[in-house]
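Bench log, entry 3. Co-assembly request; chain sequences pasted below exactly as received.
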Amino acid sequence: MSMATVGNISFEPGFPSRARLIGADPAPADVLTNLEPKQRDTVRELLDASGAVHFRGFGIRTIDQFETAAQSLLGQLAPYRGGDAPRRAEKGFVYNAAGPDKSRVLRAHNELSYAPWHPKTLCFGCGRPADEGGATTLIDGHRVYESLPPRIRDAFRTRGVTYIQHLPHAAGDPSGIKSWPETFETDSKDDVMELCQSSYTSAKWTPLGLLTTNRTPGTLEVGSDDRIAWFNQAHIWRKDPTITPKVSDMGVWETRLGYGATYGDGTEISTPDIEQVSATLHDCTVPVNWEAGDLLLVDNQAVMHGRMPYAGERQVFVAFA
Ligand SMILES: [Fe+2]
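Structure output for the full assembly:
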């Protein structure tokens, strides 16, 4: 698709693709929540082809406007269940996308790629940009896959990744690891074990907390063209062996809390390989700068997202579907 104007919106393919409201409208947010069928089709087409669409000019500034817009674009919103980030719903299933430490880069990832369930689509919205920095970063997973040496990408594609997490019983653990009640948004041991046994590869209680493993693919086929995309969080979960030794030894895992990742068959991912992955991700990173009122739709299977460091009060909403 080339650049096109459909009604009062101009669409421009790219990474990310762009959608802009043309001319002044007394209620720009209503335009976005009441897209014409042809405009809706164009958004879907661009999202399928590029994996990300950046909307500007629709004035989605408040949490209420964001919730309405996200529901109209995504349909039913979903909770952030099973996630490793400290995150609380602000309204319904609208969350704050801030991330833990604003002075540091939030490394790009596919949302919940380590969990048995992940959202198909994400919607970000900017109530207020940071005073400085704070761009959301995007990485095209297909470009990553194509850029990696065949030996590494084939290993992830054919062997997958196993994610290991050992979560403490209570919030505020000195390890800084999110507890299982926080992770699963419930205090019920029975509910959590039922959920984990039905969806994780393994799950067990230990004196320290809840220990689970989850074997998943390391790549996915995405879009209507079934292109192969990088889809894993090994570069974040797989810590350096000096920090997390014996990552493939489940006996050792019973005695320490934390997160780890191995290949799907339980063998270690080597340090040079993970460094190559991180370097490739870095090379493929595209920043998206925010203006208040912007919206960003991301195909979570096709595209990774992260965040640059920032200063000031940045308000970015996120919803999952
Ligand atoms: Fe995220």
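Residues 109, 111, 305 surround fe (ii) ion (CB under 6 Å). The chain has two domains: 4-131+290-307+316-320, 142-280.
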